[in-house]
Amino acid sequence: MVDLMILHGTLLTMDIQRRIIYDGAIAIEKGRIFDIGTTTELNSKYNARRIIDASRKVIMPGLIDTHGHAGHSLIKTVAENVGDDWVSIVENFYKEGTTPDYWYIDGKLAALERLKFGVTCGVSYLGSCARTDDPIYGIKHCEGVSKIGIRDILALGPGRPPYPNKYVEWKGNVSKEVYASFERNLEVTEDIIQKVKKLNHRIDCTMSPPSITIGSLTKDGRVRDLPDVEEKVEAMKHVIEKWNLKLHCHAYSPQIKFAADKLDLLGPHVSLVHCTGLLKEEIHILAKTDTKVCHAPSARSIIPIQCPVVELLDAGVTVSIATDGSSPDRTFDLFKELRMAMTIHRTFFKDESFMPPGKVLEMVTVDAAKTLGYENDLGSLELGKKADIIIIDMMKPHLVPFFMIPQRVAYEVSGQDVETVIVEGEILMENSSVKKVNENSILESAQEEAENAIARGQLEKYLEIPKGFWGKSRY
Ligand SMILES: [Zn+2]
């Protein structure tokens, strides 16, 4: 007797041979994949406590979103028209306009969105620059995500220089300024890691400085001089080693060369987001050090200069596709992002043979698992791996006829077509109905908290329709 069997589906296993099993079945026991084969084979071997019929449906590994932001869900589209100022607006808002409730409700909303889009594991960077003046904010995010049940990797670490950073604590309508140094940010990071370990084994933490060189780039694209960067990196490495963490952060050229030459920071446990404008030498460094790349095709940073995904893949670098969700202008729908990745790189090379459907499906499953170091447990449907599985309903006008399944999934499926989501053998959504929480009450509380937050952060003016919105070719 096994815990659960899924029968009669078309299995996109994403295993090493990329097997597709028609009239396929999976047996799940104690949260892991116990057996996999055809329905006839598995039916002859096992009885199950619970059976799901997946006729005319696709069964595939849960998607893995290798980069997104905690905090973004409640301020989607706010200030979308202000260009580069957006980063400082949201960064100030996170530091000065958010409360523990904000992070709790945002965590629930973001995880609910990911769940409904079939994302069973996602990175959540704690803000736009980590809110680590106090552990409460990170913990509340994790408590929110825990209610939904998907996996989360909380990315946290030091704030952006110069230090100390100013933050605001709210008690009701009363606010108080607080300051946190680089060292305080690291203490809070350790405190959160310790508490999260006890809270929920589906949540992991990763060290995430604001960028791979800690400081941002100058306006003319040089690495900003941070006088004691080596000392700060040593302090960060100490925490990474102590807690056996990975390193995950934004990085752009020429920071990668700087991180390799001056900081000795790259390696297989490092995943870098965006990686736009890379020099040839930097592509070689990433390949040589087995550093991973998270490509976010909807991120605005790729508009002025692209991430050389094709060149990185050709050099043997592991590249995943991420949402960078969900502000100011995107969602956590990874199916949409893999299509965006195909379109922008095909357009760049003026050649539709680039980024084949099979490759982009790998980039949100097996390659994404490898990017985050979970390849032994996640990313494919194979014996012994964790049972993180999604089922897609294909009986819809945009998905029928039922053939060329991997192509159909890559080109035509959207997040809303995901019908059932299982994490570690636990059914979190079935027939589009979310199991552990009341979806409507989360949406209502999100609406209320977003309205409070907009008022607290004085963001009302960024909700208005801006000048040049209608009838013009540009703002
Ligand atoms: Zn990001």
Explain how this protein is built.
A hairpin with a 2-residue loop joins strand 2 (20-29) and strand 3. This protein has 475 residues and is α/β, with parallel strands linked by helices. The chain has two domains: 2-61 and 380-434, Urease, subunit C, domain 1 (Roll); 63-372, TIM Barrel. It starts with a strand and ends in a 19-residue tail after the last helix. The chain contains 14 helices and 20 strands. Zinc ion binds at residues 67, 69, 125, 250, 273, 324. Residues 67, 69, 125, 250, 273, 324 line the site of zinc ion (ZN).
Question: Could you outline the blueprint of secondary structure elements for this entry?
Answer:
Blueprint: E1 2-12, E2 20-29, E3 32-38, H1 39-45, E4 48-53, E5 57-61, E6 63-65, E7 69-70, H2 85-96, H3 100-116, E8 119-126, H4 135-148, E9 151-156, E10 165-171, E11 174-180, H5 182-199, E12 203-207, H6 229-243, E13 247-251, H7 255-263, E14 270-274, H8 280-289, E15 292-295, H9 309-314, E16 319-321, H10 334-349, H11 357-363, H12 366-372, E17 389-393, H13 405-412, E18 418-423, E19 426-430, E20 433-434, H14 439-456
The structure holds zinc ion.
Residues 67, 69, 125, 250, 273, 324 line the site of zinc ion.
